[in-house]
Amino acid sequence: MNQKTDVAQEELAEKDEFSHGFLPSLVILTLVILFGIVLAEHQVEWFPIYGTNNISHKPSFITLVPSSLASYHTISNGLSAFSGQALLEPSLVQKIGMLASIIIVYVVIPTFFFFNWRNRRIQNTSVASHTQLNLSSISYTLSAVLTLSIAATVIYSSVGSYWIRQSLERSQTIQENKDALISDLYFLSLNANQYNILPKELGGGNGTYEGFRLSPEQVITRSGVFAITANEKQITVTAQSYMYPSDVIYAVINENGQLRNLRFEGNFK
Amino acid sequence: MENSSITIEIKQEVSVFLVWIVGGILLVTIAFFLPASSNELWYQLYSCCVAAVVYLLALLFYIVRKPISMLARAAATASVIFTMGCLLFSTLQMDSNAHWQVKKMLDIRATGGRGHMRTTMPPPLLKTLQAFHQQGSLKKETLAQVFHRLNDHAAVGSNIHKPYYDQDSLKTYIQALEPDKIILVSQEVYVRGKNPRFKNYNGQEGMIQEKCILTSKGITYESEN
Predict the structure, then answer these.
(1) What is the pLDDT of residues A254-266, one digit of tens each?
(2) Is the ipTM reported for this complex over the cut 0.85?
(3) Which domain does A221 fall in, by range?
(4) Each residue of A221-230: pLDDT tens digit?
(5) Mutate which of A114, A163, A217 to disrupt the B interface (most B C-beta within 10 Å)?
(6) Which of A93, A125, A157 is at the close of a domain?
């Protein structure tokens, strides 16, 4: 190697890591991607791609977490099934949004970052060592920020989704228990009403709740433990959860057999 | 002369960069269109994730080749593999969460539907029972006659449920109207029950259905599907 070539190489390494015109275009590309992601993360609607379903956490056209688009579509279809509407295939725009997200997040940004990273490692430079703010360092910083954002989002989402699931399961269990107790209470009010209506010769109260008792199956059900206090005109009921004993429902069955004055304690509140 | 050869080298590097980008985009795009069309985006997502993982691993091995130091190589490889592991875990978790939420929504719909049936079926039967026993020991009307009179002379097979709201799809049919027994059957037209092959009263299959039987001794309740 002659001396001239070495000097020229060093100069070039300091001044131009990439060919002339390439860096500006990459910087523009990075800025566009960054701008797009910032817009997308702020829920800017680029296209009316999600119909009229109103879901609070609607993902954007392009997102750092492409799986959120698939989640959104699955849940939208779940809501359609919930209200008896036909399930929909993802629209072309939704598919394009998903594909664009995957390409940007998993191909373009990491490739740009890794190529930059390799160049920097080979030339033994870093962002911190650059005293001058040039296009190369800006583009490297942007690509690094984007790549690290993607990695951080992925790690956060993997941990977050686990905890969200745990939290959802617990609140769902409590809600299911509450619904089951209310259902049992409703059946109890039905029995009480029937007791009120039936004549004494058929085991009823003939217009009163006096003498109304719970059967052993009604005292302890799969959801909880029930206790009543009956007088002539009304029954006071206490339903205590099995799983969470501090969760209790108090209610009154009025003279018309209707369940009234429901009061919730503990997690049922 | 040397300057121009270096410029050519750099241009080659740029070309390699562009080849990687275009190759990655092609790989992921092809993977995206491999799965058959369905109601879900998950198949496309998983297919793309596999392609992206293959691409990123290949890119990683290309990027960390010599003269990158062993330490930097190990750090980059570990970071990429850790992030890809998290990516896989979070994707699987989100898939599982989304389907779990949908299942819960449909369970809630079924529970709501059953609750709706249990609140709408008994009142006309209880009114009938009350009117029947108010006749005293000497009955002039049978249970069926009382029910018929109190419910606009509804006949067997007719739906006596009046919708409470636009999307109220509940149907309550009179299955039997006998002197000493009345049977009401209530069903939803799109909410699935436990047995998908259960034959519903209106000819549909697998929908939730509950039954109320009224005799002079009171109401018995049956969850059919």
Answers:
(1) 988 889 999 999 9
(2) no
(3) 174-268
(4) 988 999 999 9
(5) A114
(6) A125
User: Distance from A187 to chain B by nearest Cα, in Å?
Assistant: 8
Which distant-in-sequence residues (6+ apart) come within 8 Å of A112 by Cβ? A26, A29, A30, A139, A143, B17, B21
B133 neighbourhood in chain A, CB within 8 Å: 197-199
Cis peptide before B123 (omega within 30 of 0): no
Residues A104 and A184 in one domain: no
What distance in Å separates the CA atoms of residue A228 and residue A231, rounded to the nearest whole number?
10
Calculate ∠ Cα A258-A262-A265, nearest 5°. Answer: 155
Give the type of residue at A51. G
Please answer yes or no on whether A157 and B109 come within 8 Å at the CB atom: no
Each residue's pLDDT tens digit, A150-190: 888 878 877 887 888 888 888 888 988 998 899 889 989 99
Mean pLDDT of B145-163: 89
**B116 pLDDT tier (thresholds 50, 70, 90):** confident
The rounded distance, in Å, linking the Cα atoms of A58 and A66 is: 12
- Residue contacts between A and B (CB atoms, under 8 Å): 222
Residue A104 lies in a domain: yes
Contacts by residues B102-110 (CB-CB < 8 Å, ≥ 24 positions apart): B102/A74, B102/A75, B102/A77, B102/A78, B102/A81, B104/A172, B105/A78, B105/A79, B105/A81, B105/A82, B106/A78, B106/A81, B106/A82, B106/B191, B106/B192, B109/A81, B109/A82, B109/B191, B110/B191, B110/B192, B110/B193, B110/B208
Domain match, A189 and A113 both: no
Taking the CB of residue A116, how many other CB atoms lie within 10 A of it?
25
Q: Enumerate the residues of chain A whose CB falls inside 8 A of the CB of residue B106.
A: 78, 81-82
Q: State the pTM of this model.
A: 0.73
**Chain B: closest CA distance from residue A246 (Å):** 24
Q: Which range, A5-9, A138-142, A214-218, is most confident?
A: A214-218
Q: CA dist B177 to B131, B140, B144, B145, B158, Å? A: 16, 17, 5, 9, 11
Pair (A14, A113) in one structural domain: yes
What backbone torsions phi and psi does residue A249 show, to the nearest 5 degrees?
-120, 130
Distance CA A127, CA A4 (A): 28
Number of domains in chain A: 2
Give the C-alpha separation, B141 to B155, whole Å.
17
Residue A97 domain-assigned? yes
